[in-house]
Amino acid sequence: MKDPASQTVSSTLNAQTAAKLDSMRAALRAYGAVIVAYSGGVDSAVVMAVAYQELGGRSAAAGNGSGALACIGVSPSYPAREMRDAVALADEIGVPYRLVKTEEYLDPNYAANPNNRCYFCKSELHNRLHEILQQEDWGIVCDGTNASDVGDDRPGMVAARERGVRSPLLEAGITKAEVRDIARHLGLPVWDKPAMACLSSRVPHGTPIDPQLLRQIEAAEDVLVALGLRQFRVRHHDEIARLELPPEDFPSVLAHYEQIVAGIKAAGYRYVTLDLAGFRSGSLNATANGNADQALISVDELLSFRQ
């Protein structure tokens, strides 16, 4: 295994987190042959890296035996930039990986974009991974769910449990903060990577989802990526693109507003707005429940306040 610590400064874990990591290592060794549902985020990256440390790799031709395989679900809801980064990290560590095409958008239940949309998306992914598990005699499928995820409204977790997916981080009691500590300890460059939900999460529930709409949102977000912004969402409201960013990034947005507006309009939006409430994960869920706390204002109008 290549040493990721050669790329990123490692850190020392406290005793409690180290004990939890040891517990997770033991569980992964007991699983023997593991498929990791890997997205490139910090949670699944930690599971992938630790599984590979404990089990090594195993080709499909090798038959029975221990090993780890990272499987990246690829669909229109998964930004191409995220896929490239996920592949690059797997390559850097040396973990065998596979791109697994999913077609959740063909499921009318998913395309209708109900409140439990994630259930149908994760069902599709884990059905595909389960096929690989059976055909190639892998032992278990693991995901990156951690202890901080418990209590959230996560229909995707239900789909995973129905299909026997294990969550080593959750089972070891590892929280999100501890995941980041472990990632930094292992030298993983994604240790401080912001969470990045799928592109469908940018669309209000009840608005139908199709690949063309997801490509539009992705093109709009790529404009922000090009400026070096790391945490953001482009929320889709028909002709309106509502930008959510941390307030500390507002000055950068204002400094480049003409470039941002032109790029996002080129993606297919008529209006570009900045949400003064800032970045909030899952803000469209609040909107659907009538609890939104956002304030919409155009960039041009905001600039006029400085005069």
The amount of helix comes to 40-55%
* CATH domain class name of the largest domain: Alpha Beta
On the 0-100 scale, what is the average pLDDT? 89
Structural class by helix and strand composition: alpha/beta
Q: Can you tell me the overall shape?
A: globular
- Any idea what the CATH architecture of the largest domain is? 3-Layer(aba) Sandwich
> Over the alpha carbons, how many angstroms does the gyration radius reach?
20 Å
Going across the major beta sheet, what is the strand order? Answer: 3-2-1-4
What is the tally of beta strands?
A: 8
Number of helices: 13
Detailed description of the structure:
- This protein has 2 domains: 4-186, 3-Layer(aba) Sandwich (Rossmann fold); 199-304, no CATH class.
- It is an alpha/beta fold.
- Helix 2 (42-55) crosses helix 8.
- Mean pLDDT is 89; it is low at 286-299 and 301-307.
- It has a 4-stranded parallel β-sheet, with helices on both faces. The chain has a 4-stranded mixed β-sheet with strand order 5-6-7-8.
- The chain contains 13 helices and 8 strands.
- The longest helix is centred in the middle third of the chain and has 20 residues, at 117-136.
